[in-house]
Design a protein that fits this description.
about 425 residues, alpha/beta, Rossmann fold, seven-stranded parallel β-sheet, six-stranded parallel β-sheet, 16 helices, about 15% strand
Length: about 425
């Protein structure tokens, strides 16, 4: 098949959630012999090297166009009643680039990664003119409108109004996409069910989970359990849910941890830390790394991974990475959402500061529990989260526009929570 990916970011390097998912989709399809073209916007000239590297390493065609005048794009969205996140990613030069590719090539399928990219399909002047119309596939990943709704609930005016407006407009756009595209994807069945509960038609909506590459993330050879906790959180650190998670954790849990373990350490590892995150380094034992070339050494030196999310949608890849590294995870229910887990077996759940302290004490005082959780987490990755196995239905979807019902849970561990 010839497949066009319209991606909201070039999916290389695969160093954050949505880029990881799209990268592995492309890699899988290339390995299966399909012809792939990727078109994506960029904002920084430095990103061009990532386009070139993806093209060189994986033999795909990669094209892009620079997004300019962000303030004007957002103002246009506000004045025309469009969702700001849709307006933010739209540019006429990129539209022309996409239309040229659709005109000159007979694509079997077009995959949009994130709802904002559907605007290029809806505004295309060439798709409907094709004798053989490509199948239109949307990978929502998560229900973006619900994330904006969560922002609104946790914000005061005027930001609450802006977020609520965005949630409403994005949801209407998501519904329009589901009605217009041949098929849509979410990362979990829970996202699909939530979409349905909000009133969307979901006859053509499917769930394909995220996977994990065992060659990228693997257990350290060093002994993990220590008397003093070395905690880790990873992610893009100007992304609001990540910022909220670490700020809440340091403000509400960290002092109690230091009272119990004065030499405890907490690494916040990831690019673009904003001022709120940087200010956390004032606390003893907290280290904010900023961008790191290789995240694996931080997993190697850490003993426990924390995922204290209070705003989240979809699956947290960082939790799967910790599983693959054989590190026990303590997460809020939101941080564990969409992951196949058994509480107390391959993860510990905590919703309050007291819960986090209790979970830490259990892991640090019970070596048997520590090892059981670590081993079971790793086994979950090896048994459930192989990218190749997970993406077989994706190829079927591109070829036929649907996924035949399969028994996906026959060999899966029980899901709790």
């Amino acid at each position: 098949m010839k497949i066009l990916f319209i991606s909201h970011r070039v999916p290389f390097p695969p160093n954050k959630g949505e880029k990881i998912r799209t990268f592995h989709q492309i890699k899988f399809l290339v390995e299966k012999g399909h012809s792939i073209t990727v078109v994506a916007p960029y904002e920084d000239e430095d990103e061009i090297k990532h386009f070139q590297e993806l093209e060189r390493r994986y033999k795909v065609k990669v094209f892009g166009s620079k997004l300019k005048y962000k303030s004007l794009r957002l103002l246009t969205g506000l004045l025309t009643g469009r969702a700001l996140s849709v307006a933010n990613f739209y540019s006429k030069p990129l539209q022309q680039e996409i239309d040229q590719h659709i005109q000159s090539d007979d694509y079997d399928a077009i995959v949009c990664t994130a709802s904002s990219m559907a605007e290029y399909v809806f505004r295309s002047k060439t798709i409907d003119r094709k004798g053989k119309k490509p199948r239109l596939i949307m990978d929502f990943m998560d229900l973006d409108s619900d994330k904006w709704r969560q922002y609104a609930e946790r914000s005061s005016f005027p930001m609450s109004w802006i977020y609520r407006r965005e949630a409403e407009l994005i949801f209407q756009f998501e519904k329009e996409i589901a009605e217009s595209f041949d098929a849509c994807l979410f990362v979990t069945e829970a996202e699909t069910e939530l979409f349905r509960q909000y009133g969307a038609t979901t006859n053509n909506v499917y769930a394909i989970e995220n996977g994990m590459d065992p060659d990228e993330f693997r257990p350290s050879k060093e002994e993990k359990q220590k008397d003093t906790p070395v905690l880790l959180f990873t992610g893009v650190m100007d992304y609001s849910p990540n910022v909220d998670a670490v700020v809440w954790f340091v403000e509400n849990v960290w002092k109690a941890i230091l009272n119990k373990w004065p030499d405890a350490e907490f690494y916040i590892a990831g690019m673009n830390p904003n001022e709120k995150v940087k200010s956390l380094e004032k606390e003893p034992g907290v280290q904010v790394t900023g961008f790191v070339d290789d995240i694996l050494p931080y997993f190697d030196r850490s003993t426990i991974f924390v995922a204290p999310f209070r705003i989240a949608r979809g699956v947290q890849n960082k939790v799967l990475q910790a599983f693959a590294c054989g590190i026990p995870v303590i997460a809020t229910p939101m941080g564990a959402e969409g992951i196949r887990y058994q509480e107390g077996e391959n993860i510990l759940l905590a919703d309050t500061a007291d819960d986090f302290m209790a979970a830490l004490e259990k892991l640090l005082t019970d070596s048997g529990l520590y090892q059981k959780v670590a081993d079971n987490a790793l086994e979950t990755i090896q048994r459930v989260y192989s990218w190749r196995g997970i993406l077989e239905p994706f190829e079927e979807l591109l070829a036929t526009g649907k996924i035949v019902d399969r028994d996906t849970k026959a060999d899966m561990p029980e899901v709790a929570g």
